[in-house]
Write a sequence for this structure.
């Protein structure tokens, strides 16, 4: 049932007209406003498909945008605002997962994979260099070569 | 009647595909020329049947035959003709039919153009291609049949999702599919080579154009999608790191890696087993992309069809082909002995680095895309991974890539010296630094994105130009025109990467935005432009109602543009869309959006100045053109005779 409600909310929010941030939401202080926008882009709209609250038209996103601005006006730091929203809605709303616990794997995946890739590549490159020394002929090849040379001299 | 004909042709195509899978493969095993050659007519027949099937579905859409359920669900009599046609693939069933049609097209193309391939290789390639066809045809017929009928046809349809009624999105899926499915050719060649146990320069010479073509189509498809998002979604975003975008981006990155590693196989007979692995992975990721979009396992705006049964089916197809190919790879890759010998500092070494960077960055995107799913399965945690993560985790790889690219591409084969190779690039480096300094001086903001991005972009562009000049041996312009097309293609594509770098970074750093309420007649200023809302009118469109604003833009007292941003409502789907008005320019786009009416008689209005936005798609276009120019290189046009001679000289294993 909860899921059905979610899908309904999804359908309502999906693709509705633009103008996510409404003119009446914008703060007078440009510095605070730009911080609010920065925070909004990191928070996911809880009922939409992959939209942040800055882009979303869902009513809840508007509420969240207003809430973020209220907290900023009250003097909270960016992290405090994000924490407050996360406490309420869970880590689902964080578009940038925290680099803690299991999520460390996510954050370290890039550097570790790059390291592994470079090590493999380097050992491959070294192996290509080492074959540079010519391989001596095997006995079979030598005898074949001798035979061919013999054929040549006879002809 | 026509729909039944299409349905019948579809089922026949499955039969033909089964034949194409089994008979040539057995023939290649038993060495029977007749059985092997049967692959060619089969591939052509399969394409012909699917073309009939697709034409039948198109006919149903064009004539608004609402007794076909798919037409009822996705079309409407009042819809413009263009979107009646594009509506054929604007839905799950039709888009899968397009998928197999393109698959069969590539198979038929290989059958027709592959006259000089060794018969057993050709038979095996077409057989693998046929097997992919069998899997997807079965998928369509069993889970997604487009030809189902109603007993009592309704009077009118439910219309196509208005977001899809747009030229950019109309042609986005076909190009993406051409790319995804084009990679199936590389895959088929890789699997066939594993079965044959032989990879040589001639093989790479076959695989490279297919990969290049697939990569080109993917580039165009992705660029169209991103351009569409830019003008349609109403705030000018161009990339969202949405799971479905990632689904197309991963194969693109891997295809880019593959077409570079295939150069090493072709020219130096090295990196063979890696190239095979890349070919398997690139197509594997295309299938994963199809799985992500079609199953809806990761929720996304794009999944207009989400059905668990379909998801499981595609997952089974993915497991069979990728699992099978990797097993074969594990068993046979040892037979691919490398021949070329080279020093780490060489073109080969640079291409290996290119492959590491592209493959790892693709894997980073993969891990980020799948992470929410994994976290839910493993720890029952519902979390999100979005743009902020990808920007941080992915961008460093692109920065390193851009730094080393011009240097790597000018290094000689086998053995090089960095200092010596860098000499022709000195001027490019100076120019790039000058651009970075200029951007730094102009920037008022705090972000370093503009300086780094524009500097690297300039480095890529000037580096590509310097390399072309270097290739002429400083013999002047006349020689420049006689350079091989491959050299030109490479320079154009690499410069295209630079142009996109500049576009993305300057747009991100320098965009200016203004959100306000304006009454008709009111003016406001944004970044030196004076914007006046002249009036707002209700306009009736063919299948929608539009609220159209007229806005006048002036700069220094001179009129720059009169623009008409729109807000539309499509009554059949009860869905609003925005049509932003864009005044495009080489150095900036003006981007206006009209919003809701306000209580005081004003209108919500959003205005943007987006510097260098055009460069994002200009760069993508240049990449695609570079690929096209490279494809017309002499060695692909005249290589036919040379190829068969070369093959005759290769001893049997």
């Amino acid at each position: 049932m909860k899921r059905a409600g979610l899908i309904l909310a999804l359908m309502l929010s999906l693709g509705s007209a633009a103008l996510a941030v409404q003119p009446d939401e914008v703060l007078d202080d440009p510095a605070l406003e730009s911080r609010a926008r920065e925070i909004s882009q990191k928070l996911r709209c809880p009922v939409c498909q992959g939209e942040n609250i800055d882009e979303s038209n869902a009513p809840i996103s508007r509420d969240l945008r207003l809430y973020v601005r209220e907290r900023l006006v009250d003097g909270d730091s960016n992290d405090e605002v994000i924490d407050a929203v996360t406490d309420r809605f869970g880590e689902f709303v964080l578009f940038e997962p925290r680099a803690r616990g299991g999520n460390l794997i996510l954050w370290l995946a890039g550097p570790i994979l790059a390291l592994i890739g470079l090590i493999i590549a380097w050992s491959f490159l070294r192996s290509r260099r080492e074959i540079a020394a010519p391989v001596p002929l095997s006995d079979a090849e030598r005898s074949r070569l001798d035979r061919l040379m013999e054929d040549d001299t006879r002809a | 009647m026509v729909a039944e004909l299409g349905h019948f042709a579809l089922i026949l195509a499955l039969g033909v595909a089964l034949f194409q899978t089994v008979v040539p493969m057995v023939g290649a095993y038993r060495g029977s020329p007749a059985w092997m050659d049967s692959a060619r007519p089969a591939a052509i027949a399969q394409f012909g049947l699917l073309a009939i099937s697709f034409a039948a579905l198109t006919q149903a859409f064009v004539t608004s035959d609402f007794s076909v359920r798919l037409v009822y669900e996705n079309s409407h009599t009042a819809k413009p003709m263009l979107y009646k046609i594009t509506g054929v693939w604007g839905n799950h069933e039709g888009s899968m039919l397009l998928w197999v049609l393109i698959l069969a097209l590539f198979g038929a193309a290989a059958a027709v153009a592959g006259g000089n391939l060794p018969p057993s290789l050709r038979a095996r390639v077409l057989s693998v291609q046929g097997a992919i066809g069998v899997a997807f045809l079965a998928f369509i017929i069993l889970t997604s049949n487009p030809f189902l009928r109603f007993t009592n046809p309704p009077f009118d349809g439910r219309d196509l999702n208005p977001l899809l009624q747009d030229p950019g999105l109309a042609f986005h899926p076909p190009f993406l599919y051409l790319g995804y499915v084009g990679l199936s050719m590389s895959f088929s060649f890789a699997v066939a080579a594993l079965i044959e146990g032989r990879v040589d320069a001639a093989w790479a010479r076959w695989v490279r154009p297919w990969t290049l073509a697939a990569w080109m189509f993917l580039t165009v498809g992705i660029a169209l999608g991103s351009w569409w998002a830019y003008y349609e979604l109403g705030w000018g975003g161009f990339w969202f790191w949405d799971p479905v975008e990632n689904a197309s981006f991963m194969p693109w990155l891997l295809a880019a890696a593959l077409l570079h590693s295939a150069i090493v196989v072709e020219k130096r007979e090295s990196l063979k087993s890696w190239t095979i692995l890349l070919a398997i992975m690139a197509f594997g990721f295309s299938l994963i992309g199809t799985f992500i979009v079609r199953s809806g396992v990761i929720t996304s705006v794009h999944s207009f069809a989400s059905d668990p049964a379909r998801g499981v089916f595609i997952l089974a197809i993915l497991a069979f082909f990728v699992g099978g190919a990797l097993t074969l790879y594990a068993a046979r890759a040892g037979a691919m002995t490398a021949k070329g010998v080279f020093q780490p500092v060489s073109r080969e070494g640079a291409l290996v680095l290119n492959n590491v960077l592209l493959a790892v960055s693709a894997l980073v995107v993969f891990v980020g895309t799948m992470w929410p799913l994994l976290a839910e399965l493993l720890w029952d945690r519902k979390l999100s991974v979005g743009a902020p993560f990808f920007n941080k985790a992915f961008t460093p790889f692109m920065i390193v890539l851009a730094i080393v690219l011009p240097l790597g591409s000018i290094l000689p084969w086998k053995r090089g010296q960095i200092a010596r190779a860098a000499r022709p690039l000195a001027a490019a480096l100076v120019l790039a630094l000058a651009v970075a300094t200029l951007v730094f001086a102009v920037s008022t903001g705090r972000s370093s994105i503009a300086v780094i991005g524009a500097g690297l972009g300039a480095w890529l562009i000037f580096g590509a130009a310097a390399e072309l000049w270097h290739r002429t041996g400083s013999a002047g312009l006349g020689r420049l025109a006689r350079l091989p097309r491959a050299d030109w293609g490479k320079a154009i594509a690499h410069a295209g990467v630079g142009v996109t770098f500049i576009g993305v970074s300057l747009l991100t750093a320098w965009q200016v935005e203004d959100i306000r309420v304006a009454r008709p007649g009111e003016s406001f200023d944004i970044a030196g432009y004076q914007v006046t809302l002249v009036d707002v009118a209700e306009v009736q469109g063919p299948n929608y109602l539009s609220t159209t604003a007229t806005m006048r833009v002036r700069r220094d007292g001179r009129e720059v543009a009169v623009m008409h941003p729109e807000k539309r409502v499509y009554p059949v789907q009860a869905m609003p869309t925005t049509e932003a008005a864009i005044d495009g320019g080489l150095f900036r786009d003006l981007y206006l959006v009209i919003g809701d009416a306000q209580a005081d008689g004003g209108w919500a209005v959003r205005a943007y100045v987006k510097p260098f936005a055009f460069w994002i798609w200009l760069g993508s276009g240049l990449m695609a053109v570079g690929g096209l120019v490279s494809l017309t290189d002499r060695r692909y046009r005249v290589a036919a005779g040379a190829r068969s001679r070369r093959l005759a000289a290769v001893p049997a294993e």
